[in-house]
Amino acid sequence: MALIVQKYGGTSVGDIERIKNVAVRVKRGLDQGHRMVVVLSAMAGVTNSLIALAQQMSPDPDPRELDVLLTTGEQQSVALFCMAARDLGIPARSLLGFQAAILTDRVFGRARINYIETRRILELLDKGRLVVVAGFQGVDEDTGDITTLGRGGSDTTAVALAAALRADVCEIYTDVEGVFTTDPNVEPKARKLKQVAYEEMLEMASLGAKVLDIRSVALAAKFGVKVHVRSTFSDREGTMVVPEAHIDEKLMVSGVAYTKNEARIKVLDVPDQPGVASRLFAPISQAGIVVDVIIQNTSADGHTDLTFTVPRTDFKRALELVGPVAAEIGAGQVEGDTNIAKVSIIGIGMRNHAGVAAKMFSTLARENINIQTINTSEIKISCIIDEKYTELAVRALHEAFGLAEEVEPSREDLA
Ligand code: ADP
Ligand code: ASP
Ligand code: MG
After folding, report:
1. Ligand nearest to the CA of 39
2. Residue of 41, 159, 175 best suited for mutating to test ligand 2, as the one with most atoms within 8 Å of CB
């Protein structure tokens, strides 16, 4: 008898029929004698429509109230699911974030879990109940205010619960069959990985592979949680996220990721003097905006151009903050561009191989895709490109690094 945490994403609980199907799937686990905790996301599209509603109400919704609103999405799904489960004879009990005692800090919209007080969940499990926890939400331990963990945060709820309860496995059920070499919805030839190392998954998630939320991967790595990413709509084995994956030595690159969530800001003719960069970036970091790539050109005539990227949601605010400082320090124009995408190749195998970057650049060049900025680390290379070439770039890189599905030999070949 195992203790299993299962998380079902938005598409998996997207309508009444799907919620009923999830209940049937959960019942199978219970019938095998497992103790189970189920974490649910809001039904597909619900969180987005709640955000749209808030934006209709106010140009700058109050963060505390926005969290109160957004958590209702998951509240709906756990209640509906428990109704379906009870109709199947399962003694299911829903718990909202505060009832499950998921204690967080007070950073509305992207709160961090500090601690989970598992007593109530364990008592319910001991009574033979199926515990169904609303994902993506917690409670500020000092004030009792409701918080959310950031978009995609239900994965984090599930892994944190698995860690706190010392579950045998955390199963992440989603709308694809596991973690692929790239987004299978962009490149149908993408190959499912049997295993992926925490380190690689962390990099893939941070570079846009939203199949797992980055904080859930960090937590899994920290607490050694066994994570199995798999499909709600099939019984096939998915991908195990593990400490050390078997590395295919032939493969320099194990995945291609992309994100359209960033925007680029360029400050022209910045005086090339000590302290200037720090003055430009101080107000941005004070506002809690995370700067990703920074590129400074070599200076000409004592002036240089400075380019950097920020999350697209922070773009307007970053522009407003940089404008006045640029004027103060005697820089030129400030330009912004939201039509950019970041494509990245990732692989632990890259450490031991030279020429990976050159191959990435020549692949993009062959497709006539201009590279705007480049950013590298030991196990990844990222390029900012024009957003409209994203899919083309992903497919070209996937092909160039030999990641495509190995084609089964045809009958003629075997004959
Ligand atoms: P859920 O609602 O179940 O949390 P998400 O939409 O957050 O699901 O994540 C699943 C999606 O992640 C897939 O539909 C797929 O388009 C996308 N994705 C991006 N990169 C990858 C990848 N490397 N492997 C698998 N899926 C990926
Ligand atoms: N419902 C939340 C979102 O859409 C959390 C999640 O699905 O993981 O971001
Ligand atoms: Mg998700």
Report:
1. 2
2. 41
